[in-house]
Amino acid sequence: MIHNPLLNKEFRQRMRTNRAPIVITAYLLSMAALTFFLLYENVQGQFALLLPARSEQVFLVVSLLQMIVVTFLTPAFAAGSISGERERRTLAVLLTTPLSPVEILIGKIISSSALLALLVVVTLPLYSLVFLFGGAVPQEALAVFGFQLYTILAIAALSVAWSTLALRSGWSTVLSYSTVTFMTLVSGILGYGLQFAAGRFPVDAFLVQWGSDVLQLNPLWVEARLENAVQGTAHSWVIFIVFYTVLAAVLLTFGVWRLRPQVLSFMPGVSRSDEKNYQ
Amino acid sequence: MIVTQNLSKKYAKQLVVNRLNLNVRQGTVFGIIGENGAGKTTALSMLVTLTTPTSGKAYVNGFEVSTDPVGVRRSIGYMPDSFGVFDDIRCEEYLLFYADCYRVPRDIARQRCNEYLDWVGLAAKREAYVNTLSRGMQQRLEVARCLMHDPPVLILDEPASGLDPRSRIELRSVLQRLKEMGKTILMTSHILHELVEVADELAIMRAGEMMAVSSVNVLKNHSTAYRTIRIVGTGSDDLWKSALTEDKHVLNYHIGPEFVEVFYGGTVDQQARLLEEMVQRGISVHQFFEYETDVEELFLRLTGEVMTE
């Protein structure tokens, strides 16, 4: 693993308090209770009657619920990462060390994703319960697991980028949650709205495609497709991953500029007198 | 060790630092004094590579700040004027983290950590969380942090700001020891007395410009040679003026309602003759005593700058 002092420090800081084990334990217990409840409800107390199709439904519900939890929890850990350093006045000193802005941003992204990734990992045994009754296959579970990890990383990267660009934690939190709201709610409503409109106004053939394009930006929809629970063409996750990776890369490039404004001073048209101090 | 050549910084249309020329020699302590908004912090932020100069050049330990910022960063220990500390991290971990940022080998970092914690009087606080320390302790921990990669240059922005008198004394002794270690130190303050205690050379900045530079030794010698005398007595203004203007050792004077203040550059014998002269002219002198010289005023006077405040 590439040596990143900031990452080591952040892990130490985040994991040493009681908060981390309490959050993980509470989350695992809640998810376990929910899974048992759903499985029990599906068979009305008769486990021998469990049908694979119903078991798959449980898998779908649990994994979608987990996706909602992690998408909305990730900004809470990442949105104040850089702006918080700025507000606590620790950023300037950090920037006078040989650490590069990229190392700082990577350290923040990985450290703020770590606890969420741990939440996803600890729920893996719950998925094995579903396998016990058939329905979902391990490949599906692994695909969902990998996709959730990517989504956490993407949201953390976007939140860290907003945290770098917005200067204030309040604004970066608003921007991060707006991003998550777009990903989960706005894209879903817009996508299904367009597809619904296509049914009402069949003249416009593009509406269906547009609706589908927008839905491919929705992590819940993409995850549901990974489980084959929603009909459609395969590989919708590719568009999702490409879109959010490019978006995060663009925002993080601006973030690097925010941390070290002088990196762009060599560009034509950018004067050094335009450079401000954002530390 | 630190050289600037016409270093300027402009934010939009405002010239914050204007053609700054500095030459800080190796192993010396150079103090910059200036009121808030004088451009001290901006000047330092260019030297520590947080911002780039709009024009001019600056070299730290031979590295140019714009073209070789990493070389500069490896050469300096920087303490900003208002700094913060991380939550949930112990003093020892705090120092080791910064050593790690400079890729200091772990065993050397541990050795330095022990040495510098002891050195700044925080050995007993090794396991304490940094955010639970008092401001003075945090300030000393910051000094230790600056030393973890053994930089030849320390740049300290208002190191004593916000400290109580006891912490100021402790910090002063730490700075003295740094000086003995041979570190080149550039520090700022808006209190001249603070700098006089530790600095070898002093400069005054105002409105982004360097107004004057003086050696502290010269300043100290002059502060014993030049004195402020307060005289309480009765006599007309004309009598006072004639007695004071005729004495060539009187550099300046101010006739106030309660006393006359004289800035005097002569010897003690000459001072006695001044008193005699005043009495002979008919001034009834009730009190004649030396008053503590205002170092700041003296500094400005010696460097040819007139106090405008």
From TrEMBL, chain B:
<keyword id="KW-0067">ATP-binding</keyword>
<comment type="similarity">
    <text>Belongs to the ABC transporter superfamily.</text>
</comment>
<feature type="domain" description="ABC transporter">
    <location>
        <begin position="2"/>
        <end position="232"/>
    </location>
</feature>
<dbReference type="GO" id="GO:0005524">
    <property type="term" value="F:ATP binding"/>
</dbReference>
<dbReference type="InterPro" id="IPR027417">
    <property type="entry name" value="P-loop_NTPase"/>
</dbReference>
<keyword id="KW-0813">Transport</keyword>
<dbReference type="GO" id="GO:0016887">
    <property type="term" value="F:ATP hydrolysis activity"/>
</dbReference>
<protein>
    <submittedName>
        <fullName>ABC transporter</fullName>
    </submittedName>
</protein>
<dbReference type="Pfam" id="PF00005">
    <property type="entry name" value="ABC_tran"/>
</dbReference>
<dbReference type="InterPro" id="IPR003439">
    <property type="entry name" value="ABC_transporter-like_ATP-bd"/>
</dbReference>
<keyword id="KW-0547">Nucleotide-binding</keyword>
<dbReference type="InterPro" id="IPR003593">
    <property type="entry name" value="AAA+_ATPase"/>
</dbReference>
